[in-house]
Amino acid sequence: MGSNDSSAKSWRDKLQEQGVDAARVGDAETAGTKMATAAEGLDFTPEAPIAPGKFVQLLVRSAREPS
Amino acid sequence: MSSAPELGLTLEESCAGIAGREVSVAALARATLHALETFGSELNAVARTEAEQGMAAASDCDDRLSGGGDVPALFGAPLAHKDIYERQGWLCEAGSRIMSGRVAERTAAACAGLDEAGALDLARLNTVEFALGTTGHNSITGAVKNPWNPAHITGGSSSGSGAMVAAGVVPAALGTDTGGSIRLPAAACGLVGLKPTLGRVGRSGIVPLSHSLDTAGPLTRTVRDAALMLQALAGFDAEDAGSADLPVPDYMSGIEDGASGLRIGIPREVFFDNLDESVATSLDAAGSVFTGAGASLSDVTIEQIAYANRLTTLIIAVEGASLHSRWLAERSGDYGPQTLGRLMTGLFVPADAYVRTLEFRRRFMQNTLSTVFREVDLLFTPVWPYEIPTIEASDVGGNPGFTDMIVASGQCTRPVNFLGFPAITVPCGFSSNGLPVAFQLVARPFEEALLLRAARAFEREIDFWSAKPQVSVWRGN
């Protein structure tokens, strides 16, 4: 995805400009890409993702409803 | 008899002694400050003490006591907290160089709650850098040492909190839990660690790591002490967008009602993977205590549980990187190497993976609640899947081969953060290397009272604290 690629390049450049070893940056990029594979198997639904504060409201709602 | 008579009491005992005018708050505070300096140094657990303000507050407490009348529940209790809890005018450095010298401009809501309950605040305790780690290592401030055996880790990231409560220096301390950082050090140090429901305790004034997961809570030596702390902490925080506006129950009410009739589920998949034998033995024995107390145990299956650990790690990586993006862009050299590596990873996770994770989280939580928690009241799991390792063996900087063990350290805790449900860890024995073993109970959202009741039922059946750590107020300095 273009926006992800350009963001990744931007961060590679920023980190290496500060002297972070290119290999370490590469390791982080590999780890991040690998980390994303955890989400690959998830079923797709058209529902909107839940914002952090809204997730708490779901927990509150569950506590108020009889189980 | 402890080396300093005022120390080594539980929070409940300390507060009763103070309210009963049996002990001077100033004398207790002075002894605690001395112990924070001495044991804190020996265990590398203390970032800094605040003696001047602490003693002034203690003197004010004694003046009030001499005037007669009732006092609040935690009046005069000498506490100390993880160095990510802000107090206006105090340093708050989060175990980092990035925040070195930073003075807080406000006081954390959790600290304000304890202030209102009358507790003292005497120090800030060492933490893993920016609370990002499960062992207690910190390349900047050094590893905190476990009072039971100082060659071993305390667990993290609330490492100093675990050490100082287990050493008997303070009766309770605040930690935070994003992927296990209250429960892991509590378990490693033989303590009760309470991770409340996401949103139960306000988070304003706490240095954040992940807004979707961060939870504030106490580490104590007893279950009743955890209830006392939660009573002071729980409530709506208008400054925290993730705060729950829900009434706070009386957490002591019903705490002695026992475990009879409770339905406890054991989720074998993931939680019990690759369990060390001595840990498994302790957990089996703990399960028997519950059945002996009248609870029923049964195996349960949590659908799609295999996703939870890795997706929690994804959320922490992305949200942590986002929070740190300015510093990563300008001061990456000021981070410790472990922390930098973990934060950099989050910069390279594609956005759609994060978005899908958040959407999945909602479905996973609702499905688990409507299926598993229809059949059981609580879940019972390990906390650490293996014996508590040494500081040297678990230092991935020097021992990269330990990395997989680091991932495994959160296999029992991170899924609970993903759910947002409350959990408590309770010590239940010792492993073959002499370090504590604990189990975890998990309840439905905002059922902390049930957690406390079940944990207390177990605690009454064993006397874990008849043993004392090597480095503690009970064994002298």
Structural notes for this entry:
The complex is a heterodimer of chains A (67) and B (477). Chain A is mostly helical and 67 residues long. Chain A contains three helices and no strands. Chain A has helices at residues 2-17, 22-36, 52-64. In chain A, helix 1 runs antiparallel to helix 2. The mean pLDDT of chain A is 84. The mean pLDDT of chain B is 95. In chain B, strands 1-3-2-6-8-7-12-13-11-9-10 form an eleven-stranded mixed sheet, sandwiched between helices. In chain B, helix 7 runs antiparallel to helix 15 and helix 9 (308-323) crosses helix 11 (337-347). Chain B is 37% helix and 14% strand. The longest helix of chain B has 25 residues, at 351-375. Chain B has 477 residues and is α/β, with parallel strands linked by helices. The relative contact order of chain B is 0.14. Chain B contains 15 helices and 13 strands. Chain B starts with 10 loop residues before the first helix and ends in an 18-residue tail after the last helix. The chains are: A mainly alpha (67), B alpha/beta (477). The interface between A and B is large, with 46 and 56 residues.
Q: SSE order of chain A, as H and E? A: HHH
Beta-strand content of chain A: under 5%
Spatial order of strands in the largest sheet of chain B: 1-3-2-6-8-7-12-13-11-9-10
Order of helices and strands of chain B: HHEHEHEEEHEHEEHEHEHHHHEHHEEH
Short description, anyone?
The complex is a heterodimer of chains A (67) and B (477). Chain A is an all-alpha fold.
Keywords:
heterodimer; A: 67 residues; mainly alpha; 3 helices; elongated; B: alpha/beta; eleven-stranded mixed beta sheet; two-stranded antiparallel sheet; 13 strands
Give the topology, please.
The complex is a heterodimer of chains A (67) and B (477).
Chain A: H1 2-17, H2 22-36, H3 52-64
Helix pairs in contact in A: 1-2
Chain B: H1 11-19, H2 25-43, E1 46-49, H3 51-66, E2 78-82, H4 109-116, E3 120-125, E4 145-146, E5 149-153, H5 159-166, E6 172-177, H6 183-188, E7 192-195, E8 215-220, H7 223-233, E9 263-267, H8 277-292, E10 296-300, H9 308-323, H10 325-330, H11 337-347, H12 351-375, E11 378-382, H13 403-409, H14 414-419, E12 423-430, E13 436-442, H15 448-459
Parallel strand pairs in B: 2-3, 2-6, 9-10, 9-11
Antiparallel strand pairs in B: 1-3, 4-5, 6-8, 7-8, 7-12, 11-13, 12-13
Helix pairs in contact in B: 2-3, 7-15, 9-11
